[in-house]
Structure formats: C-alpha cells, structure tokens
C-alpha cells in the first residue's frame, strides 16, 4: 500500500476546509449584529497525545486556557490503539469573546488521528499545515512518544519542544539525559513547577543579613514522597546546591574546604511534588514550605511558598520560544544523579 493511499489525509484538503470555515464565519459575522470574528494566530502549537477522544477533550480544555494568552493554530495529534496505519483529519475552531469586546477571537484547530504504526506518515502532513514564518511549539507530555518514527521527525520542526518528565514518574531517569537532544530548545514542565520555590529562595537571600546564614548552613534537605523523590524535588535540590556552588563528593557536597549534607526527607502521603526545602545551621533552621503560614520563632523561620501554577499557566509561558532554558540544562546532569542515587536523611 502506498503512502498516499495509507495516509488518506491530504493537507490541501484540510487547508481548504479551514478557508471554508473562515468564509462561513465571515458571512455569519456580517449578518449578525454583535460584532465581527477575528482570526488570530501567533504560532503553530502541536500537541501529541495517546489515548481516545476523552484525551482529546482534556486537551481541548487545556488549549482553551493557553490559546487565550497566545492564539495559535493548534494541531492535535492523537495516537489511538491498534495497528491500522491510516490517518484521519478534521478541522474546527475555538472561539471566545474577550471581556468588554464585541468581537469574537477564534483559533484554528486541526485534529490528526492515527496509531503508533501510522505515525511515520505524520511529518509530511504536519509540515504542510505549519503557519509560514511563525514559530512552532510542540508539547508532548509523554516523552517516550518522541522516540517514535514520525513523531521524532515532527518534533524536529519545532522551535521549542515541551515535555513533562514527571509523566514517567519513577522510570523517567532513562529519558532524562536525552532531553536536550529532543529539539532546538527543550523545556520540562517538571522544572517549571519549582519556579515558586526558586523565586522564594532567591528573594529571601537577597537580603545581606539572610545571606550570612548561608556561610553556616550544614544541611539542605527537600521534603518529598518516600521511596523515590519526585522529579521536581530532584530539580530543586540540584538547583539549590549548584547555585550555592557545591558539587558532590561522595556522601557529602563540597565547595572548597566547606562541606554540607544534602538529600531528601520522606513525607508520607505527600500531596505536593515538593512539600518543603530546609536549610539547617547549628543555630538556625529555615524552611520554605508549600501552603505553610509565615512564622518566625527563636532559631526557626518558616517562609510560605505560593501554590504551584497549573499546567495551563506553565504552558502559556512556554510559548515564548526565543531563548534557551540554560539554567535548566546546566543543572540537568546533577538532577538525574540525585534522582538515580537518592539519599534520604534522618528526619529531625
């Protein structure tokens, strides 16, 4: 069976259907009295998911939030179960009315359905559907899919590839080291989820009085789930130790002549990727905690950390494609090592 017969989706047909869709919208808006329809597009957003139509509905809900910030042509690639290598395609639009406006803003949505076996035909179709001269972002929560024939080639078209290594949970270490090679610019939502902790820590130690404590810290510990740390916890510990200038030296971490102990604290029934990070010196304990109340007592301080942004907010930030996440890439090797060889400390 030839590729054309097997594919059964012609990009030219989908593009013609989009033109017809906008022509219908234009005619309807001219006849209506409540304002025009604006066709908005700042980039091409490709989402690769595996599952069924419920998965697509979940994806549409995510797109509804993301597209209000960065209207784009959305291409959803749904990989179904089975060995059928044919591909189906359809077009639609998502529309909303900004507050106080008479105009509706609409984005294009293209759904491509195939199987893992049929993914090899995706690049030719997707390439023809990209909006010319605009950036391309590809989001694939399951990084395993990026190694499939066709998906890997499709990701090569993207200016930014976004994954969520936490999707692989405890088996993510095999995929982690390969992340930088998955695209021109690569991002990880698990890294993005530690932003509130990073900002809180950096803000606190901007004060000269607080920075003095760093010279006395003897232990840094991230509280997370028992047994195996979350990827977010490994990212935070790696960033903290790297920012302080420490490198691993056996069971300890060293910076010149100074050493400190670093690792994880087990939190049973944890509901957060990270529950807290604690800095301990002989005279003082400083804890940055999710959902905690601000408090200061002799020898002890608790700094509350705000709620982690949802994936919709994080993905909206990822649509800024012009720069590398150099800090993420810098601390990735140490993060993987902390995850693969976790050291759980005794709780005090």
Describe the protein's architecture and organization.
Helix 2 (11-31) runs parallel beside helix 4 (122-129) and helix 9 packs across helix 11. The chain is an alpha/beta fold. It has eleven helices and 16 strands. It starts with a helix and ends in an 8-residue tail after the last helix. Strands 1, 2, 3, 4, 5, 6, 7 and 8 form an eight-stranded mixed β-sheet that branches. It has an eight-stranded mixed β-sheet with strand order 10-11-12-9-13-14-16-15, covered by helices on one side. It folds into two domains: 3-158, no CATH class; 195-340, Dihydrodipicolinate Reductase, domain 2, CATH 3.30.360. Mean pLDDT is 88; it is low at 1-6.
String of helices and strands? HHEEHEEEHEHEEHHHEHEEEEEEEHH
Low-confidence stretches: 1-6
> What is the number of strand segments?
16
Helix content: 25-40%
N-to-C terminal Cα separation, in Å? 66 Å
Mean pLDDT: 88
What structural class do the secondary elements suggest? alpha/beta
- How would a textbook summarize the main sheet? 8 strands, mixed
C-alpha geometry: elongated
Number of structural units classed as domains: 2
* DSSP summary: helix tally: 11
Taken as a percent bin, the fraction of beta residues is 25-35%
Question: What's the helix and strand layout?
Answer:
Layout: H1 3-7, H2 11-31, E1 37-39, E2 44-50, H3 53-69, E3 73-80, E4 88-96, E5 104-115, H4 122-129, E6 136-139, H5 151-155, E7 160-163, E8 185-188, H6 189-192, H7 195-204, H8 208-214, E9 219-225, H9 231-243, E10 247-249, E11 252-255, E12 258-267, E13 276-280, E14 285-290, E15 295-297, E16 300-305, H10 311-318, H11 326-340
Parallel strand pairs: 1-5, 2-3, 2-6, 3-5, 6-7, 7-8, 9-12, 14-16
Antiparallel strand pairs: 4-5, 9-13, 10-11, 11-12, 13-14, 15-16
Helix pairs in contact: 2-4, 3-10, 9-11
């Amino acid at each position: 069976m030839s590729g054309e017969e097997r594919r059964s989706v012609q990009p030219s047909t989908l593009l013609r259907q989009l033109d017809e869709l906008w022509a219908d919208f234009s005619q309807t808006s001219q006849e209506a009295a409540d304002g025009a329809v604006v066709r908005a597009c700042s980039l091409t957003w490709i989402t690769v998911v595996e599952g069924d139509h419920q998965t697509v509905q979940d994806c549409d809900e995510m797109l509804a939030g993301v597209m209000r910030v960065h209207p784009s042509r959305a291409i959803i690639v749904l990989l179904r179960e089975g060995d059928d290598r044919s591909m189906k395609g359809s077009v639609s639009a998502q529309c909303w009315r900004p507050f106080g406006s008479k105009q509706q803003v609409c984005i294009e949505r293209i759904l491509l359905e195939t199987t893992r076996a049929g993914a090899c035909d995706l690049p030719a179709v997707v390439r023809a559907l990209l909006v010319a001269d605009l950036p391309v972002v590809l989001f694939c929560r399951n990084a395993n899919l990026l190694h499939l024939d066709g998906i890997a080639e499709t990701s090569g078209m993207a200016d930014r590839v976004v994954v969520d290594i936490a999707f692989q949970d405890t088996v993510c270490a095999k995929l982690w080291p390969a992340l930088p090679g998955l695209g021109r610019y690569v991002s990880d939502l698990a890294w993005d989820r530690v932003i509130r902790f990073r900002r809180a820590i950096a803000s606190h130690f901007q004060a000269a009085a607080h920075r003095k404590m760093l010279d006395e810290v003897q232990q840094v510990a991230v509280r997370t789930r028992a047994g195996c740390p979350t990827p977010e916890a490994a990212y935070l510990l790696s960033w903290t130790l790297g920012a302080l200038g420490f490198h691993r030296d056996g069971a300890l971490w060293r910076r010149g002549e100074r050493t400190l102990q670093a690792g994880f604290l087990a939190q049973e029934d944890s509901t957060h990727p990270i529950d807290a990070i604690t800095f301990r010196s002989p005279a003082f304990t400083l804890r940055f905690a999710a959902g905690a109340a601000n408090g200061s007592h002799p020898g002890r301080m608790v700094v509350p950390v705000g709620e982690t942004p949802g994936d919709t907010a994080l993905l909206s930030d990822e649509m800024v494609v012009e720069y590398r996440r150099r800090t993420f890439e810098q601390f990735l090797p140490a993060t993987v090592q902390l995850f693969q060889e976790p050291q759980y400390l005794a709780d005090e």
